[in-house]
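Weekly puzzle thread! Below is a chain. First person to post its structure in token form gets bragging rights.
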Amino acid sequence: MLNFLLWCILLFLCWPLALIALVLYPVVWILLLPFKIVGIAVGGVLELVWAVVTLPARVLQGSKR
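Winning reply:
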């Protein structure tokens, strides 16, 4: 919603720039999509590594209760 309001303000102030932004936004989103996918994959791998590293500590804490 905030993006839409900012775009409306830009449309009011400088409509050619707003139209260029409207056209380029999907292109930029598609170009950045592979980086988002890689970021999700790297985040998942880092969470898996963190879970494996902290597993012994969690097992020992569970046996004390």
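Puzzle host: Confirmed. Bonus trivia for everyone else. The helical segments are 2-13, 15-64.
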